[in-house]
Amino acid sequence: MNTFLLPDLGEGLTEAEIVRWLVKVGDVVVVDTPVAEVETAKSIVELPSPYAGVIEELHGEPGTTIPVGKPLITVADPAGEAYREEERAGSGNVLVGYGTSEIPGAGRRRRPRSAVSGNSLPPAAKNVPQSDGPAQRRVPLVISPLVRRLARDAEVDLRELAGSGPDGLIVRRDVELAIAHRVQPEHAPAASQTAVQPAPRTGLPELRRTPMSGFRKAVVATLTRSRAEIPEATTWVDVDATALMDLRASLRSAIDAGPGLLALMARFVVAGLLKYPELNGYVDTEREELVQYDGVNLGLAAQTDRGLVVPAVANAHTMTTRGLDVEIRRLTESARDGKLTQQELTSGTFTLNNYGSFGVDGSAAIINHPQVAILGVGRIIDRPWVVDGELAIRKLTQLSLVFDHRVCDGGTAAAFLRFVADAFENPASVFADL
User: How many Å apart are CA 270 and CA 315, to the nearest integer?
Assistant: First the structure.
């Protein structure tokens, strides 16, 4: 009997939450078979089994948080009784001169799972009965992390739902319907619901309490440390981005969509950081030194179902605009799927935040510690603007730079911001120097 303990996942992580099991009790596994999908403070990862044999026990339900070093699964030794019973059942494979035993009443051997795709449905999710003590409990068929999160936040037991999607898949509307029925059950008046005691300070009832996930705890720790340690300052400028939009349109063709707008912005930001490296570094408080990096790993703030993440384009200073575009799209897709690596999530040297995608004009962002600056870009909209003494309708946006005042004074920060703003307003001339 072997017990697989939750391994050290690096980066100081001390726990992980079980998102879903990729195996069930009774499954035969080989070494490196993925057995569980877990969510850490950094990303969602698959854990492979270090043992071969039969799954004897799964230590925890989906949604359970397990500390590092605690049991995750128990696997019976291949030489153990459970595995020998599987062998006696007959595999259908024989050696020359030998055959499988015919045992009356014996079932077929379960097929070993040599690999499980992260995008495939695990056997435990096929709506088959699974032992859970005295009762048989159904493991739900659900794929979307958004659906799981919605159910978890609202304390909806997915095992009690019947999916309305293809093959019984539980989809978002099933969870929302369960929430609606719980708030106002069918055939029951609102007055019949249990009264909720009001909170002492406000006198209002609490709608719900949601435990912080490991990911949210990590975000809280980073932002709190940033506010506590960094003497930050903010500067901003309104920018005429008409020429930038025209450049983006000119790069499109019938057969090539061309680099996206964010890739163009990223290219100008990288050029600005190479010119003003004070903003591309960190403060070594122990040695009382200001450190500047020789190169840029450009972090890009991205909103996902799990919250805000900032994956980094490694060695962005070596890439063309088209290369940046390819990498940005790859990181964005990985962020949505929860498949970013710890290296991608923690290696940034500067952050570009396109909060304009949320339809807002400006923001006083919080620096992503231990970085020393973050540049935000607001939405690009039509506004009146004076051009050559004449009033015109132009494509305007706002750039805001939050920087650590320990690494530079306002002059350097303003010079960097003005460089990027000039690139937005006259991109053709800047490209000539890149």
Answer: 10
CB 402 within 8 A of CB 278: no
* 73, burial (CB in 10 Å: exposed 0-12, middle 13-18, buried 19+): buried
Of 367, 349, 368, which is closest to residue 296 (Cα–Cα)? 349
Q: Which pair of tokens denotes residue 318? A: 């070596």
DSSP 429: H
Say how far apart CA 420 and CA 271 lie, in whole Å.
Answer: 8
Q: For residue 74, what is the DSSP state?
A: E
CB 264 within 8 A of CB 252: no
Is there a contact between 250 and 412 (Cβ–Cβ < 8 Å)? no
Q: What is the mean pLDDT of the segment spanning 215-221?
A: 77
21 SS3 class: strand
Largest Cα span, the chain: 97
> Which domains, ranges and CATH numbers included, belong to the chain?
2-129 (2.40.50.100), 140-186 (4.10.320.10), 232-431 (3.30.559.10)
Q: Identity (one letter) of the amino acid at 216?
A: R
- d(CA 217, CA 208) in angstroms, rounded, equals 18
Place of tokens 């991608």: 344
Amino acid at 382: D
**Residue 192 DSSP label:** G
405 is catalytic: yes
Instruction: Report the distance separating Cα 214 and Cα 209, nearest Å.
Output: 16
- The whole-number average pLDDT for the span 383-388 is 95
Whole-model pTM: value is 0.60
30 pLDDT higher than 60: yes
Q: What is the residue whose two structure tokens read 């069930």?
A: 24
Asked whether 389 and 245 are in contact (CB, 8 A), the reply is no
Q: Go through 298-315 and write b for each residue having 16 or more CB atoms within 10 A of its CB, e for each that does not.
A: bbbbbebebeebbbbbbe
Q: For residue 139, is pLDDT > 50?
A: no
- CB-CB contact of 72 with 6 (8 Å): yes
What is the token pair recorded at 348?
């940034």
Per the listing, tokens 């009382």 go with 288
Tokens of residue 33, six digits = 């078979």
Contact of 245 with 380, CB cutoff 8 Å = yes
Residues 308 and 297 sit within 8 Å (Cβ to Cβ)? no
Rounded distance, CA 350 to CA 375, Å?
8
Answer positive or negative: Cα dihedral of 9, 11, 17, 20: negative
User: What spatial distance separates the first Cα and last Cα of the chain, rounded to whole Å?
Assistant: 62
